[in-house]
Amino acid sequence: MNAISYHLDSRHGLTVRAQSIPVPDPNQLVIRVRAASLNRRDLMLMDGTYPLPATAGVIPLSDGVGEVIALGDNVTRAALGDRVTASYFVRWIDGPQRRAHVAEQYGANHDGMLATYAVLEQDSVVHVPAYLTDAEAATLTCAGVVAWTALTTPEPVRQGENVLVVGTGAVALFAVQHARALGARVIAITSGLAKAERLRAMGVDEVILRGENPDWDERVRGLTGGDGVEHIVDAVGMATLPKSVRSGAYNARLTLIGAMPGPALNGGDGNPFGGSYLSIRRIAVGSRAHFEAMNEAMTVHRIRPVLDRTFPLDEAVAAYRFYRQADPFGKVVISVP
After folding, report:
1. Mapping DSSP to helix (H, G, I), strand (E, B) and coil, where does residue 143 land?
2. Domain with CATH 3.40.50.720 in the chain
3. How far, CA to CA in Å, does 278 sit from each of 83, 166, 189, 249?
4. pLDDT digits (tens, 9 = 90+) for 66-101
5. Which CATH class is domain 146-283?
6. Are 282 and 305 in contact (CB under 8 A)?
7. Model pLDDT, residue 275
8. d(CA 147, CA 170)
9. In the chain, which segments carry CATH 3.90.180.10?
10. How far apart are CA 313 and CA 332, in angstroms?
11. Architecture of domain 4-139+305-335
12. How many CA atoms lie within 13 A of 24 on its CB side?
């Protein structure tokens, strides 16, 4: 097929161009992309609401997987033919996250995965679990890692602890899977019966429908003997944060996921966090080391990401539209033939 790449344009959304096989610099490698997937941040980048503005003309999407087809002279972390992806942040390998790490992201100001070929910096390269399909492996970088980081840092969830997951987006679904693998009792908040049934099928112990339980924080405390939960992963944002706080046990850990605009809270001026990341913990994905640790755990427990729908590369615009409008349960994937 003729190679193509999509580019993000602030005026016209996605545009498509012919693509030649890139030539890597000494510390880069080139992959033949096989699949990519969408995250909420990709809509925010398109809309201009993400904290890090998109570079004009950047190839979008942080999440994808492919086969290594070319290596720079200094590359040692991968070999030709390896199936790899990249960490969300181009240069955060391990240790505390610093502002400099956040400043470089695939699909924002470094070309991402929505193309036939992608160029990766070797320090960001991550090998994906062999048992996953390309579509599944293309979903890990953002939603998978941030859910893992929420539940395992600064220390992992312990066997038998209670984890509350608020929302049913991709991050929330990964959080359910990781929490169960860690041996936690999982309580989930959702909006509809169909989603509730699917959450139960995933092994969630207690599902609370927020329409039937508008004071769902009280229901959570009732399910935990009045104590509250030890861990909360809130993948919704400002609208649910007060109830998430009230659901927590003494010394609970609440992780508010991701970069998100939010409505005014208690009469304030919008999202009180602004561009800050601090406790009540608000985290931004994770490091390469977090990614690799997650992959090891997923391999042990044979966790398979939840997929909603797959689109071919030439229907990427339709994939964006579906992701924005359809309220998918699981990841929206774009296959690259």
Report:
1. helix
2. 146-283
3. 35, 19, 24, 19
4. 999 999 999 999 999 999 999 999 999 999 989 899
5. alpha beta
6. no
7. 55
8. 9
9. 4-139+305-335
10. 12
11. Alpha-Beta Complex (3.90)
12. 21
